[in-house]
Amino acid sequence: MDKIAVERKWNELWQKSQVYKFDKKNVDNKYYVLEMFSYPSGSKLHVGHWYNYGLTDSFARYQIMKGKNVFQPMGFDAFGLPAENYAIKTGVHPQDSTLHNIEVMETQLKNIGAMFDWDHEIKTCLPEYYRWTQWIFAELYKHGLAYRKKAPVNWCPSCNTVLANEQVVDGHCERCDSQVVKKDLTQWFFKITDYAEELLDGLDGLDWPEKTKAMQRNWIGKSQGGEIVFDLADGSGSFKVFTTRADTLFGCTYVVLAPEHELVEKITLPEHRAEVNAYIEEVAKTNEIERLSTAKEKTGVFTGAYAVNPINGDKVQVWIGDYVLNSYGTGAVMGVPSHDARDYLFAKKHGLTIKRVIKGATADVDDSLPFCDYGVMCNSGEFDGLISEQGKLAVVQKLAEKGKGELKTNYRLRDWLVSRQRYWGAPIPIIYCPHCGEVLDENLPVTLPYDVEFRPDGTSPLAKHRKFIHDVVCPKCGAPATRDPDTLDTFVCSSWYYLRYPDAHNSDKPFDTEWIDKMLPVDKYVGGAEHACMHLLYARFITKALRDMGYLHFDEPFKSLVHQGVILGPDGNRMSKTHGNVVSPDDYVNVYGADVFRCYLAFGFRYIEGGPWSDDGIKAINKWLDRVERYVTAAYGDYAVTDKTGRDEKELNRVRNATIKAVDADYPSFSFNTAVARMMELVNALSKYDALPVKNANLYRATADDLLKLLCPLAPHFCEELWQQTGHSGSIVVSAFPVCDERALQAEETEILVQINSRPKVRLTVDATLPKQELQEFVLADESVKQAIGGSPVKNVIVIPGRLVNIIV
RNA sequence: GCUGGUGUGGUGGAAUGGCAGACGCGUCGGACUCAAAAUCCGAUGUUGGUGACAACAUGUGGGUUCAAGUCCCACCACCAGCACCA
Questions:
Q1: I want to staple A7 with a disulfide (CB 3.0 to 4.6 A). Which of A184, A187, A436, A717 is the partner?
Q2: CB atoms within 10 A of CB A170
Q3: Percentage of chain A with pLDDT > 90?
């Protein structure tokens, strides 16, 4: 068979007959399969795309054959930084390059032979989509979930531009190598932290990999402790620290503020100012990863100020240190050198007091300092003798009575910063009016202008687009106003696209609430594990926020999640241009066809593991499909079948049904490699039968039919062609998946293993229906078993019916 | 550093606590052929033995069990994620 010609033929016929069109009337039986949509990159589809889309399509095709009404859409996450960088480099407008890339990728995606419903294609960079991204911003704003505050950005003083983390290499600008500094800008945030608790709780009910759930739990990072108020010693103000170890408060001998803490400027004494300012400037140059690195020495400087430990009135020094982050907790920590390893090092280095307040619970505990485990309080006045677990509550309670503390749950999760000082994104629908302040622009879409200047010169392309910024009046009072010059993080675009798909071109609404409640949640979501914390968390947040606004009536967007593994380059590295190890599927698809390539990807890897690329064995898959063709064709010659091995047809029927059973379990669990292996076994079984010119070949033909159906999800064109060639009517791709006949699996006789003292000794063929007791008697009566035992007394016999008998002598 | 994962022949990988290595690749041998390709058949964990067979084998060392790749403990290596989380 000329596989490539056949693929072209069926691809066209399927498009024409709209065999994959989602049946809107049959929603009760819907099955929503979604692969994370593509970024329209300038390089073509790589092997990883095929691995994700091709094999998930096989899963979707399996669901169709199991009678589901499958909805499987495709689209493009089309905004983003690379297109803008490309524009700066080449002058090609992001819109032009992006739309062109999409066109190329659409053609390539169609070659996979996936049953995407292109009628509902999404391109996030089109106004028909991003107007609703802006609508989401507007709704969050109206419900108090979008707000502005100052936040630092990476700033390259030489390029005069904001850099993404990705563009900062070792603290330097990737373009000009200048030292990158932090700069505060007022930016928009989404209040994802309002949902921290629910995002955490909701994980329990999800059919997601445990690994991913664990990562989200860590990311949300719930911790329970106390918030404690420290007054400044001169009475000029106060600040709070968060701690999970309030039981160690008596050992607090200093406090450390983040260098960015708002109080630093105010409290620093004149004689310390120079040192403090120099330190702050130095910290602005480092990124968070450097600041928090364990390998780095803990640095800090004294501000000259003192605060009062609220539990015992001690005067403690106020320091600043880069290991304290302004974005976590209260931006201030108490220093307890005796019971915290980090504080211990810090205190040793700077000569600060170390005071034990916890001792080991029992004498055998090594409680030499720093002693960081729970223990018993000491040197803590009225609290002496309390164990840490009780002590940390008691201390906070005592402080609460004086208004100096409260129990507090803290989350590591931060609010979602969505402002980007970029052009190629959805404009933020906010207008600034000199009279009314910030005003939501509900006249959507706020269209992204095409004619902009990309050359970086200190302002983003939108900010210097006079017409876009200034050609606007306040919606409230009509006064001349200005637009927000920033665009939305592309994660905002991708946080709701699964809601848009089922009705992608609706121009009245982002989605129809009644319809969406029937279509969602997504039944199977497939994509890379690298999105575990960002995209997957944002999507859950948006779903919950829209639910609380009354637009949705479900809690979670993705009921079931699968991560495909990563196909590495042949050298074992991640495929990338820099490694020069990118493998193009086209080189193989042009030679062997899409079906062979899909089957190879299915067979050669554990789907969720992935691994280094190697094309060893792709020829073998090609040959195997040729074998399938030969046996299927033979079955439909005017032939019947005799058995070369001397077994009767029962054996063929048994293998046939065993294969059905196994493959029927493998597809839904994404175990494609074993599914192929089982089908190979079936073909091997078929090969044991010779075709001879007699009639009556029903079983052989039925087996061939089943084989085609089992294989169809992986090699749809190939199977459709053979289905037609063997005279069947209708399309195999929507035919019913074979059902296993359990009766065929029940053998009358079975071989069991007899072990003596757990060592395999004798094999016996026995009646498969023998109950335990009789099986034991049968085995013990057997001559060869008696011989193997050799007269030693039998102490114990373990019988596993159908498998083995273990005789302990 | 913390957390999670992985570790099985020359190789990709199979194994609800029950005969480790299914199914492939590769290699070796054979059939067909003038020859090659294609196809088909057979062998293939290691060691010892002509042999039937025996011993040893799932990163290392212990443990539980009649029975461990699988469960428990410790360690080693590699990979991924997170970065002092107060």
A1: A717
A2: 9
A3: 36
Nucleotide nearest to A616 (CA to C1'): B25
In strand B, which positions have an atom below 7 A from any protein CB?
1, 3-5, 11-16, 18-20, 22-26, 38-41, 55, 66-67, 80-86
Find out whether A491 and A1 touch, Cβ atoms under 8 Å. Answer: no
Distance, Å, A761 CA → B84 C1':
60
A506-546 pLDDT, tens digit per residue, is 889 999 888 999 999 999 999 888 787 888 999 999 999 99
Q: What's the CA gap between A555 and A545, in Å, rounded?
A: 9
Report the pLDDT value the prediction gives residue A34, as an integer from 0 to 100.
Answer: 93
Is residue A406 classed as helix, strand or coil in its secondary structure?
strand
CA/C1' separation A568–B76 (Å):
26
Answer whether the bond into residue A557 is a cis peptide, omega within 30°: no
pLDDT attached to residue A574: 79
> Does residue A336 sit in helix, strand or coil?
coil
Range with the poorest average pLDDT among A376-380, A456-460, A600-604: A456-460
Q: pLDDT tens digits for A552-590?
A: 999 999 989 998 888 888 877 778 777 778 888 888 999
Q: Which nucleotide shows the minimum CA-to-C1' distance to residue A751?
A: B19
In this prediction, residue A339 has a pLDDT band, given cuts at 50, 70 and 90, of confident
In whole angstroms, B83 C1' to A668 CA is 37
Alpha-carbon distance of A482 to A744, in angstroms, equals 76
pTM of the model: 0.90
Shortest CA to C1' contact from A612: nucleotide: B12
CA atoms of A211 and A704, how far apart (whole Å): 41
How many of the other CB atoms lie within 10 Å of CB of A532? 22
Rg, chain A, Cα only: 34
pLDDT of residue A136: 95
What pLDDT sits at residue A693?
A: 46
Nucleotide nearest to A805 (CA to C1'): B18
Closest residue (CA to C1') to nucleotide B12 in the complex: A604
The predicted-structure confidence for A264-293, as pLDDT tens digits, reads as follows 888 899 998 998 888 888 887 776 666 665
Q: Buried b vs exposed e over A384-410: b needs ≥16 C-beta within 10 Å?
A: eebebeebbebbbebbeeeebbeebeb
Could you give the 3-state DSSP secondary structure of residue A448? Answer: coil
Report the distance from CA of residue A618 to the C1' of nucleotide B36 in Å, as an integer.
Answer: 22
Among candidates A682, A730, A667, which has minimal Cα distance to A61?
A: A667
CA→C1' distance for A375 and B61 (Å): 34
Sign of CA dihedral A61, A66, A70, A72: negative
Mean pLDDT, rounded, for A396-410: 89
CA of A574 to C1' of B60 (A): 30
Spanning CA of A670 to C1' of B20, the rounded length in angstroms is 24
The mean per-residue pLDDT over the stretch A442-464 comes to 84
| Arithmetic mean of pLDDT, A179-203 | 86
Torsion of CA A566, A570, A574, A577, to 10 degrees: -130
For residues A385-400, average pLDDT: 89
Residue with smallest Cα–C1' gap to B6: A609
Using alpha carbons only, give the angle A372, A376, A382 rounded to the nearest 5 degrees.
125
* A364 CA vs B73 C1’ separation (Å): 22
Whole-number pLDDT of residue A771: 80
Nearest residue to B23 via alpha carbon and C1':
A677
In contact, A224 and A407? CB cutoff 8 Å: yes
The neighbouring-strand residues paired with A524 are A33
Per the structure, the residue whose CA is closest to nucleotide B14 at C1' is: A674
- A745-CA/B56-C1' distance, Å: 37
pLDDT at A522: 93
**Concatenated DSSP letters for A156-168?**
ETTTTEEE-GGGE
| Nucleotide of closest approach to A334 (CA, C1') | B86
A226 nearest nucleotide via C1' and CA: B86
